[in-house]
């Protein structure tokens, strides 16, 4: 694309991974300045296609293990400031986790936060909310309350409500 003009269109890659694989997000996992594709299988397995336009340069599982189907990729972001995308996960029980990445290699992984916020809190996205060039986590509760965890790598710096009021459960964050 160039603005709203299509410069070229073609399939991404040379094969179809099948219906058990879903695209979860994009990010620059290898630091080449080009977006890559992050996938997750129904069984929980994550995979990354390193891309150059619509050409797949490399494809492989992300990391050396499958966290299982109770873990869901929620977003990507650069949590440690190395100019490479990392993976943000959330378990069905509410536990958040981060995998710090270098390409498809996991440099470090761990649950994050001072506590498990529980299954009524949902990760809605990432953003740099405190201007430190590292991603932070945007949450929303089932009751509508938004919250932000400011992060430094896998360490939580602060936890707090986003804004001064709860818009209510009829409002959803679109990130």
Q: Average pLDDT across residues? A: 94
Question: Cα distance, first to last residue?
Answer: 22 Å
SS element count, helices: 0
Helix content percent band: under 10%
Rg from Cα: 17 Å
Can you summarize the main beta sheet? 4 strands, antiparallel
- What structural class do you assign from the helix and strand content? mainly beta
Give an overview of the whole structure.
The chain has no helices and 12 strands. It is mainly β. The protein has a 4-stranded antiparallel β-sheet, with no helix packed on it. A 4-stranded antiparallel β-sheet has the order 5-6-7-8, with no helix packed on it. It has a 4-stranded antiparallel β-sheet with strand order 9-10-11-12, with no helix packed on it.
Give a quick summary of the entry:
By secondary structure, this protein is mainly beta.
Give the tags.
175 residues; mainly beta; four-stranded antiparallel beta sheet; 12 strands; 46% strand
Architecture blueprint of SSEs:
Layout: E1 21-27, E2 36-41, E3 46-52, E4 55-61, E5 71-77, E6 86-91, E7 96-102, E8 105-111, E9 121-127, E10 136-141, E11 146-152, E12 155-161
Antiparallel strand pairs: 1-2, 2-3, 3-4, 5-6, 6-7, 7-8, 9-10, 10-11, 11-12
């Amino acid at each position: 694309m160039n603005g709203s003009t299509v410069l070229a269109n073609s399939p991404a890659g040379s094969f179809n991974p099948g219906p058990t694989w879903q695209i979860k997000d994009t990010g620059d996992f290898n630091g080449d300045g080009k977006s890559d594709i992050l996938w997750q299988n129904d069984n929980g397995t994550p995979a990354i296609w390193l891309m150059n336009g619509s050409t797949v340069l490399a494809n492989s599982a992300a990391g050396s293990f499958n966290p299982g189907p109770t873990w869901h990729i929620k977003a990507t972001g650069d949590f440690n400031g190395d100019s490479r995308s990392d993976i943000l996960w959330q378990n069905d029980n509410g536990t958040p986790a981060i995998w710090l990445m270098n390409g498809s290699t996991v440099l470090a992984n761990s649950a994050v936060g001072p506590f498990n916020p529980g299954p009524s809190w949902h990760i809605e996205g990432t953003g740099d909310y405190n201007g430190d060039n590292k991603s932070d986590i945007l949450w929303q509760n089932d009751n509508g309350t938004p919250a932000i965890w400011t992060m430094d790598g896998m360490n939580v710096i602060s936890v707090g409500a986003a804004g001064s009021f709860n818009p209510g459960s009829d409002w959803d964050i679109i990130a």
